[in-house]
Design brief:
Mitochondrial S-adenosylmethionine carrier protein; mainly alpha; transmembrane; 0% strand; 185 residues; transmembrane helix
Length: 185
């Protein structure tokens, strides 16, 4: 089910994404610090490992997210195509992308909660160690299901919008490139 290199590309993308996510999240909870100050503070206090805190939890969120989103997007497009007896238009693909992204966001929200808690935890704490199952258990024990799905609606809304834009644009670009390829001598 893993196209060649798909998982590897997610793992590599997280090498770039995680440090920026750590800095962004800490900036969001810090009332007065500037981004560079936060970045410098992380390096000074925790070293390079501090910038990569939450790396494993991010990868563990991204893989199932993608394994839900992309097959669901393709299935929804195929169903819509079959129902209308022709290929979907780019806007229809975008709608399918919005639904697929929103659903994938919903089902992976507990992993996102764990990732966020790990990234924001006080250095040296048990949460900062990055054990995703331990963090999920602790959230479940203290807050129950509502804690595991904290922020689910804003996350679904943002990712649905992203799915609409990016997957719709991808499909439009793909269609244009295929059309240009057919017109070439």
């Amino acid at each position: 089910m893993d196209p060649p290199g798909f998982t590897a590309s997610l793992v590599v993308a997280c090498l770039i994404r995680v440090p920026s996510e750590v800095v962004k999240q800490r900036a969001q909870v810090s009332a007065s610090s500037r981004t560079f100050q936060i970045f410098s503070h992380i390096l000074y206090q925790e070293g390079i490992r501090g910038l990569y805190r939450g790396y494993t939890s991010t990868v563990l969120r991204e893989i199932p997210f993608s394994l839900v989103q992309f097959p669901l997007w393709e299935s929804l497009k195929a169903l819509w195509s079959w129902r209308q007896d022709r290929m979907v238009d780019s806007w229809q693909s975008a709608v399918c992308g919005a639904f697929a992204g929103g659903f994938a966001a919903m089902v992976t929200t507990p992993l996102d909660v764990a990732k966020t808690r790990i990234m924001l935890a006080k250095a040296g704490s048990s949460t900062a160690s990055g054990n995703v199952l331990s963090v999920l258990h602790e959230v479940w024990r203290i807050q129950g299901l509502s804690g595991l799905f904290a922020g689910v609606f804003p996350r679904m809304a943002a990712i649905s919008l992203g799915g609409f834009i990016f997957l719709g644009a991808y499909d439009q670009t793909r269609s244009l490139l295929l059309k240009l390829g057919k017109e070439s001598p």
